[in-house]
Specification:
This protein is an alpha/beta fold and 615 residues long. It contains 19 helices and 31 strands. β12 and β13 form a beta hairpin. α1 packs across α2 and α5 packs across α6. The longest helix is centred in the C-terminal third of the chain and has 19 residues. The N terminus is likely disordered. The structure holds adenosine-5'-monophosphate-propyl ester.
Length: 615
């Protein structure tokens, strides 16, 4: 397969970085507007230094300024920045100049509540203008936003509010899921019950009837009277712009911290040179602001590049299987970003819904978030690439915030492989004792040195950040298993740790296990991921119940109750598909649950070496 006109030549771009890495990043940074120049491009430590790194030290820059004023100064004020398609059928467009006014009003409103540089603000909002503008408003005044996906439950939200020490929560009263109203305000109220750190909750009311409590303020009433002018704070290149929580192997999600400088430089560079964005492009990412893709490639990237984007709230197959294709036709979308799960969903509906729409504007379809199975990729090339659009994979993580591996639109596509290392990213595939494996052999994927667009730390837990850097393995440990071919294409096969990937969403087995343990009927639990034809993986829980092992109707009833319990505390994305009741869990002599054995047994496979098992 080969597609697209050659825009960025990979080898040439790679050479320009390897010849002079600091010169490469210096040039990338100069494409943005700085209030004050930096004195040094990089100060970078490897595993020996716990991965400490600083970029563009001394420089002053603001992410929101670079998305808005910078483009208005370039003459793009009247260009549409965002076309919104909201779940209730409402469509609204905003030019760059209008976005600046809206964002500034919200920024002034946050200030009126005493929010200042460095304060943390939780954003619990669906993919709406108010959600994106609130993120930009925080960045504008140097406050640190932490978006919590508006599908997460009260326990997940409460943990994030507490961990971030957020004085303010900005939320919507409702989100809509396939036409159903989900009461977000009720979830917020459960999450902040007894939490005194939260002083104010600003509520964007979509459902007129939503009553407000004592800490609540009406978003529109507070924002509308504000001045539409709010000069951007001159934040330091290394000042945090946001915290985004993601799952790890231990029970508590970790707050990944990204900064104004290196993050902005990397996202802008890759938006232009990897995602090949041109000024007249119409971009559409189907992610959500609750995930890193929604931060880098909805809220910031497209506006850093100065292009127009489509933002749509709602599932890609709702209200009908043709909705995505009809919007591509309506807005003449040129570049799209989605996840393999969405492609597999499109496959299920067959090519029919595509054929009745004009998708000839589409130039590239980028996919990321989970392994892209060749069958789905080939289907997409056949049906979505029929007018010549490339369908390409890219690999990255919340911690790295932009691609580490990617197939460029102009590269030969190798199905099953995510692509080549992005210039600037030094990768190695190693054995557990740190020796590089030969090409064609699987191993642990590590990054040898920091890149400017990766996290600086884990909020409130620098030791946890340092633990990503392994002296034995010789770099930053991605947690993924990969294999490289002789030409440098890398396939990412899956996680090497206890993190699941369900429909492109990262979920820690420990988080689900902890949620199960808060149910009174559960004594012990172990969670594994099983292959799922649509979502990549699905969650299966093994539970030791209180009293005699449940069977028959009692087991079915308890299974349903436990699934509902996880859904209610963590949110629907973390709910198990199946719960099995067992008398005991397999453990090593030191007491660790051997999840691999449970999984192998469920799949009818050989469990490998079990000599260290207790029983
Ligand atoms: O396991 C890898 C998988 O998703 C993880 C990161 O998820 P998240 O932090 O949500 O960030 C997603 C950013 C796109 C990775 O550690 N993953 C991501 N992209 C791919 C992938 N696995 C295989 N192929 C990919 N292209």
């Amino acid at each position: 397969m080969r597609a697209g006109a050659l825009v960025v030549d990979y080898d040439e771009w790679h050479r320009s970085w390897s010849r002079d890495p600091d010169g490469f990043w210096d040039a990338a940074a100069r494409e943005l507007t700085w209030f004050e120049p930096w004195s040094r491009v990089s100060e970078v430590g490897g595993p020996e230094q716990g991965g400490a790194h600083r970029w563009f030290a001394g420089g002053k820059i603001n992410l929101s300024y670079n998305c808005l004023e910078r483009n208005i100064e370039r003459g793009f004020g009247e260009r549409v920045a965002l076309h919104f398609e909201l779940e209730r059928g409402e469509a609204r467009s905003f030019t760059y100049a209008e976005v600046l006014s809206e964002v500034s009003r919200i920024a002034n409103c946050l200030k009126s509540f005493g929010i200042a540089k460095g304060d943390r603000v939780i954003v619990y909002m669906p993919l709406t203008p108010q959600g994106i503008f609130t993120m930009q408003a925080c960045a504008r005044i140097g406050a640190i936003h932490s978006v919590v996906y508006a599908g997460m439950g009260p326990d997940a939200l409460r943990h994030r509010i507490e961990d971030a020490g957020a004085r303010m929560v900005v939320c919507a009263d409702a989100t809509y899921r396939r036409g159903k109203v989900v009461d977000l305000l009720a979830i917020v109220d459960r999450a902040i019950d007894g939490l005194s750190v939260v002083e104010n909750v600003l509520v964007h009311r979509r459902e007129a009837a939503a009553p407000l409590g004592t800490r609540h303020r009406d978003f529109e009433n507070c924002v509308r009277p504000q001045s539409p002018v709010c000069p951007a704070e001159h934040t330091d290149a290394e000042d945090p712009a946001f915290i985004l929580y993601t799952s790890g192997t231990s029970g508590k999600p970790k707050g990944v911290v990204h900064v104004h400088g290196g993050y902005g430089v990397g996202v802008h560079l890759l938006m232009r040179h990897y995602y090949d964005t041109r000024e007249n492009d119409v971009w559409w990412s189907t992610s959500d602001i609750g995930w890193i893709v929604g931060h880098s490639y909805i809220c910031y990237g497209p506006m850093l590049a100065g292009c127009t984007q489509v933002v749509r709230e709602g599932a890609p197959d709702w209200p009908d299987a043709g909705v995505v294709w009809s919007l591509i036709g309506k807005y003449r979308v040129t570049t799209m970003f989605t996840a393999p799960t969405a492609v597999r969903m499109f496959m299920r509906s067959g090519p029919g819904p595509i054929e009745t729409h004009d998708i000839s504007s589409l130039r590239v379809l980028y996919c990321a978030g989970e392994p892209f199975n060749p069958e789905a990729q080939e289907w997409a090339v056949r049906h979505l690439g029929k007018h010549g659009a490339a369908v390409v994979d890219n690999y990255w993580q919340t911690e790295i915030a932009s691609p580490m591996i990617g197939t460029f639109a102009a590269m030969t596509v190798r199905p099953g492989f995510a692509g080549k290392a992005i210039p600037g990213v030094e990768l190695a595939i190693v054995t557990p004792d740190g020796r590089e494996v030969p090409d064609g052999h699987g191993g642990l994927l590590i990054m040898k040195r920091p890149v400017p667009y990766m996290m600086r730390t884990i909020w409130g837990d620098p030791a946890r950040y340092q633990s990503y850097w392994s002296k034995t393995l010789g770099g930053y440990v991605t947690g993924d298993i990969a294999v490289r071919d002789a030409e440098g294409y890398i396939a990412v096969l899956g996680r090497s740790d206890d993190v699941l990937n369900v429909a492109g969403h990262r979920i820690g087995t420990a988080e689900v296990e902890s949620a199960l343990l808060t149910h009174p009927a559960v004594v012990e639990s172990a969670v594994v991921g099983l292959p799922d034809p649509l979502r990549g993986e699905c969650i299966m829980a093994f539970v030791v119940a209180k009293g005699p092992e449940p069977a028959g109707d009692a087991a079915a009833g308890l299974e349903a109750a436990l699934i509902a319990h996880v859904r209610d505390t963590l949110g629907p994305i973390a709910q198990p598909s199946k719960v099995a009741f067992v008398a005991s869990l397999p453990k090593t002599r030191s007491g660790k649950i051997v999840r691999r054995l449970l999984k192998a047994r469920e799949l009818g496979q050989d469990a490998g070496d079990i000599s260290t098992l207790e029983d």
